[in-house]
């Protein structure tokens, strides 16, 4: 049995979100071990830490926010045998998610916001297309 592009993309989306969390917690752990921040002083948005850490928290949150929606659509397609609907765009969705996160991590300012939103708009367009196509195919 071959694995669908949808299953690979779903696993990639989950893995990417996990990697952002691992990076954030590795940096937080290093800050605690070096005595820079007390372990009980972290906030979910990394307020009070470097701008990079605040962007990292937001990039991770974006992944968490998108996973139920986009991952859910991929899972529905896989579970119902309709991954032919999601397979053609699955890697584009994953690429747009990773690109959005990377821009979030390395850039600030209006141009970066526009680029990030453009990557998110690609994901939204794919998601809307998938939702409509899946609903139509499940009738």
Automatic annotation (TrEMBL):
<keyword id="KW-0472">Membrane</keyword>
<keyword id="KW-0812">Transmembrane</keyword>
<keyword id="KW-1133">Transmembrane helix</keyword>
<feature type="transmembrane region" description="Helical">
    <location>
        <begin position="120"/>
        <end position="138"/>
    </location>
</feature>
<protein>
    <submittedName>
        <fullName>MAPEG family protein</fullName>
    </submittedName>
</protein>
<dbReference type="Pfam" id="PF01124">
    <property type="entry name" value="MAPEG"/>
</dbReference>
<feature type="transmembrane region" description="Helical">
    <location>
        <begin position="6"/>
        <end position="27"/>
    </location>
</feature>
<feature type="transmembrane region" description="Helical">
    <location>
        <begin position="63"/>
        <end position="85"/>
    </location>
</feature>
<dbReference type="InterPro" id="IPR001129">
    <property type="entry name" value="Membr-assoc_MAPEG"/>
</dbReference>
<dbReference type="InterPro" id="IPR023352">
    <property type="entry name" value="MAPEG-like_dom_sf"/>
</dbReference>
């Amino acid at each position: 049995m071959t694995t669908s592009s949808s299953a690979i993309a779903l696993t990639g989306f989950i893995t990417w979100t996990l990697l952002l969390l691992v990076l954030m917690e590795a940096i937080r752990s290093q800050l605690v071990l070096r005595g820079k921040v007390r372990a009980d002083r972290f906030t979910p948005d990394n307020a009070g830490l470097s701008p990079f850490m605040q962007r990292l928290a937001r990039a991770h949150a974006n992944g968490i926010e998108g996973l139920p929606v986009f991952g859910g659509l991929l899972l529905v397609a896989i579970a119902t045998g309709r991954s032919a609907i999601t397979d053609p765009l699955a890697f584009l969705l994953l690429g747009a998610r990773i690109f959005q996160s990377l821009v979030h991590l390395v850039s600030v300012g209006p141009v970066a916001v526009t680029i990030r939103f453009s990557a998110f708009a690609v994901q939204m367009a794919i998601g809307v297309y998938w939702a409509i196509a899946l609903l139509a195919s499940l009738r």
